[in-house]
Design a protein that fits this description.
Elements: H1 6-20, E1 26-30, H2 34-42, E2 46-51, H3 54-61, E3 71-75, E4 88-94, H4 105-115, E5 116-125, H5 133-140, E6 144-154, E7 157-168
Helix pairs in contact: 1-2
Length: 171
């Protein structure tokens, strides 16, 4: 996978600043994403990092220039871990959909919505082509409204790696 570009980092940072002023903000990062973790450390935001392998989190931590003393690590999937309902102000994911079985995505989206606070949001960067984004967007709209999406041109690919800003749909 590719590292986030400078404009993508700015997008992540602006979303983190949006919640940094809250009383004891808490975010969930699905995957290891050292760039997002460093931004959270800079803003002193309590962070939970979830990955399938703790060794991967440990290795990516070595790439970080700034560490977050308010960071905890969990091994596993959010669909299986005992995360409390409405416990996160925001969820960040960088290239996470490729790690979720297509047969398990509905459960994954439902779980993200469940553990996110009602006024929270999800920021997700993923390998979704602009021309084929509609199936993903149709699946997700049951759980989240898409507030913003930005496609980044990458290498020989056109309109690749979108960033989605999504908010939970209220029932």
């Amino acid at each position: 996978m590719t590292k986030p570009t400078d404009p993508e980092i700015s997008f992540f940072e602006s979303r983190l600043k949006e919640i940094a002023g809250k009383h004891e903000p808490r975010i969930l990062i699905i995957g290891c994403s050292p760039e997002i973790r460093e931004l959270a450390a800079k803003l002193k935001i309590k962070t939970t990092v979830v990955a399938n392998d703790l060794e991967v989190i440990e290795r990516t931590t070595k790439l970080m220039k700034r560490r977050n003393n308010k960071e905890e690590w969990l091994e596993g999937s959010i669909t299986e871990l005992p995360l409390k309902k409405e416990s996160f102000d925001a969820i960040f994911g960088d290239h996470i959909l490729s790690n979720v079985s297509p047969f398990n995505r509905e459960v994954f989206y439902e779980r993200m919505k469940e553990i996110l606070k009602k006024d929270g949001f999800v920021v997700m960067r993923s390998v979704v082509f602009k021309k084929t984004a509609r199936p993903f967007e149709n699946r997700i709209k049951k759980y989240f409204s898409i507030d913003k999406k930005e496609f980044v041109k990458e290498g020989i690919f056109s309109d690749y790696f979108p960033i989605y800003l999504m908010r939970p749909v209220t029932s």
